[in-house]
């Protein structure tokens, strides 16, 4: 949840830096080589750690997903101590025999992602617009807006479980008795409300940062040309905050796709209506069924990877390190248009 | 809001909006605070202020049977060690990313971002099996190692932003004065980047402190659980009633340090986000 950051902005263009550096050291070739060696030295510990804690487990999950449980070997009838190689049977089971549970979790995950990110974006942008216009009490608003972000997701799950209790405040406010945390569509609603509460403010904060860099002259020019508020919003504000917003949305999507804490605590494990892919994989693993658990984990990984890839194709240079490259020309273009 | 509305109406609407935003953000948190201060007997009250104010729930939280003190300590150790390790590695890497020119820089940055989007469960499943085999279940390292998978990319990402915002000239001046690049880094960059490093430490710490899935999977003994896991497993007087009061009290206790930190550093993060663009 905290990973939603605006990409690093290059300060004064990467192109100018090496030139100055070379002039200082004298020999350009030697300087470049030294810089490369130093970079390798500085970067390799991080890469090493990431390959141990991320790449290696991923490969292990891939391998594990091809093995069955210990115990009775179906082919020979003997009890074996090692896990038998079963090929793609775990995947076949997941998509076939146990397919209901997988596809249910898949659709829950997708539904939660689309709905929560959609709502968060709308609410976040609205919050940012209000905060941007308000002059008094801006610090207070900004501090308040960070509080849902700081509350641990697990705690917010408990908090909302209490709010959505059968005798809780939510039912008192709507004057109905809804058993929010039991199976059914209302459980999905509860999860969505809690998730949106926690994350919309942060999108708001990032969009606000984007709004503050739009020069006032642009709006003045638009006003002189007779553009009213809604038109200004669609044709100036939105295009100009779009890069910041898209990055925020990407990170939120990735975060929502791996949703676990909130449905797990708010409604519970193995609840059909809110079970996500992360919950499914964790549940199988905690029941020592590592084969199917790994297969679920691999499928979730592939799903996240494909969505991320689609985003990167869509965003292109805006996303990776190209903060300055992707943004400034675009800004000029849009303003000129 | 159209231009036909008078200025007074507009500002009125605006402040109504501001109040709505603040209420939206704070109301649920306030409800947690209020509920934690009620007596067990009037926990279902719906009054906006608790009457009478009672610290019964807070006493229940620190009942030795709940082991909440130990859980807080566990959280502190796991989140603290994760933060220190991540910061240590990330400072060097982020410096290289922001200041040095090298091949594969883009690739490295892409990899770091990619890992930060990684579904944690995909590494928890295989690591759970590995740690079961080597007897690491219920140990701190079993929680710290997987936590690095999200803490390290987060720290690298944030620090790279901070290092990029610092003017190149400082370092060049130090090097002209006879410092090596290493000395320039140690004596000029690190002290100047201290606020950025500190802010990154807070963000990383909050992320590690809030972690739930890893801590839940890697422990099964109550004395090794971190605070979020322990609170989610609080038991009431009977197994049928959920002890909402003490859960809310414990929730407040876990959240308040973070809220205080956020209030202190909120100006920094907003400044950090806008500084690059202002230049």
From TrEMBL, chain A:
Record InterPro entries: MetI-like, MetI-like_sf
Transmembrane segments: 39-59, 111-131, 143-163, 189-211, 232-251, 296-325
Region (Disordered): 1-23
Compartment(s) of residence: Cell membrane
Bilayer disposition of the protein: Multi-pass membrane protein
GO biological process: transmembrane transport
GO cellular component, one term: plasma membrane
PROSITE patterns: ABC_TM1
Record domain ABC transmembrane type-1: where: 106-311
Keywords: Cell membrane, Membrane, Transmembrane, Transmembrane helix, Transport
One Pfam family, short name: BPD_transp_1
Family: Belongs to the binding-protein-dependent transport system permease family.
Protein name: Sugar ABC transporter permease
Organism listed in the record: Streptomyces muensis
TrEMBL record, chain B:
Location of this chain's protein in the cell: Cell membrane
Transmembrane segments: 12-33, 71-95, 107-128, 140-163, 184-209, 244-265
Organism in which the protein naturally occurs: Streptomyces muensis
Keywords on record: Cell membrane, Membrane, Transmembrane, Transmembrane helix, Transport
Principal location class: membrane
Statement: the UniProt record of this protein carries the keyword Iron-sulfur: no
Coiled coil: none
Matches recorded under Gene3D superfamilies: MetI-like
GO biological processes: transmembrane transport
UniProt keyword annotation of Membrane present: yes
Domain ABC transmembrane type-1: 72-265
Protein name, entry field: Carbohydrate ABC transporter permease
PROSITE patterns xrefs: ABC_TM1
GO cellular component: plasma membrane
Family: Belongs to the binding-protein-dependent transport system permease family.
Topology of this chain in the membrane: Multi-pass membrane protein
Domain of life: Bacteria
Listed Pfam families: BPD_transp_1 (PF00528)
């Amino acid at each position: 949840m905290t990973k939603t950051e605006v990409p690093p902005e290059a300060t004064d263009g990467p192109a100018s830096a090496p030139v100055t550096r070379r002039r200082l050291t004298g020999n350009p070739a030697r300087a470049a080589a030294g810089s490369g060696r130093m970079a390798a030295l500085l970067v390799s510990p991080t890469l090493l750690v990431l390959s141990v804690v991320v790449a290696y487990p991923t490969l292990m999950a891939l391998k594990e997903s091809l093995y069955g449980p210990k115990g009775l070997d179906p082919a020979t009838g003997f009890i074996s101590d090692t896990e038998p190689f079963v090929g793609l049977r775990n995947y076949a089971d997941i998509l076939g025999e146990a397919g209901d549970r997988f596809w249910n979790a898949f659709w829950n995950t997708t539904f939660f992602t689309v709905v929560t990110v959609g709502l968060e974006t709308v609410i976040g942008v609205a919050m940012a617009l209000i905060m941007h216009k308000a002059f008094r009490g801006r610090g207070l608003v900004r501090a308040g807006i960070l509080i849902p972000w700081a509350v641990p997701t697990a705690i917010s799950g408990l908090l909302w479980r209490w709010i959505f209790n059968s005798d809780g405040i939510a039912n008192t406010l709507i004057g109905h008795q809804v058993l929010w945390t039991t199976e059914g569509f209302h459980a999905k609603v509860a999860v969505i409300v809690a998730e949106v509460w926690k994350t919309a403010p942060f999108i708001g904060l990032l969009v606000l940062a984007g709004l503050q860099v739009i020069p006032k002259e642009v709006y003045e020019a638009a006003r002189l040309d007779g553009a009213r508020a809604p038109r200004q919003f669609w044709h100036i504000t939105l295009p100009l905050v779009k890069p910041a917003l898209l990055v925020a949305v990407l990170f939120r999507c990735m975060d929502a796709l791996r949703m676990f804490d909130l449905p797990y605590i708010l409604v519970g494990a193995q609840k059909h209506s809110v079970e996500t892919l992360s919950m499914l994989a964790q549940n199988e693993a905690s029941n020592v069924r590592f084969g199917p658990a790994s297969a679920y984990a691999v499928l979730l990984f592939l799903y996240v990877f494909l969505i991320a890839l689609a985003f990167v194709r869509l965003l292109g240079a805006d996303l990776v390190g190209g903060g300055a490259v992707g943004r400034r020309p675009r800004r000029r273009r849009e303003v000129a248009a | 809001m159209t231009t036909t509305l008078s200025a007074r109406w507009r500002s009125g609407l605006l402040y109504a909006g501001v109040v709505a935003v603040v209420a939206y953000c704070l109301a649920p948190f306030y409800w947690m605070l209020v509920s934690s201060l009620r007596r067990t007997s009037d926990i279902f009250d719906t009054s906006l202020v608790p009457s009478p104010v009672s610290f019964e729930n807070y006493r229940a939280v620190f009942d030795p049977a709940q082991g909440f003190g130990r859980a807080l300590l566990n959280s502190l150790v796991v989140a603290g060690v994760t933060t220190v390790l991540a910061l240590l590695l990330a400072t060097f890497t982020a410096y290289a990313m922001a200041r040095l020119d090298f091949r594969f820089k883009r690739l490295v940055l892409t990899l770091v971002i990619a890992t930060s989007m990684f579904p944690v469960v995909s590494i928890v499943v295989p690591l759970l099996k590995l740690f079961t085999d080597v007897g690491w279940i219920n140990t701190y390292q079993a929680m710290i190692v997987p936590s690095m998978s999200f803490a390290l990319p987060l720290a690298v990402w944030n620090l790279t932003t901070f290092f990029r915002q610092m003017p190149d000239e400082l370092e060049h001046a130090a090097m002209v004065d006879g410092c090596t690049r290493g000395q320039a880094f140690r004596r000029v960059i690190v002290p100047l980047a201290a606020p950025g490093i500190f802010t990154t430490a807070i963000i990383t710490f909050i992320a590690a402190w809030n972690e739930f899935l890893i801590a839940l999977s890697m422990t099964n003994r109550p004395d090794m659980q971190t605070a979020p896991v322990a609170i989610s497993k609080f038991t009431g007087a009977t197994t049928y009633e959920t002890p909402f009061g003490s859960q809310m009290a414990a929730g407040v206790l876990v959240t308040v340090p973070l809220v205080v930190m956020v209030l202190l550093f909120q100006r920094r993060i907003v400044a950090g986000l806008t500084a690059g663009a202002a230049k």
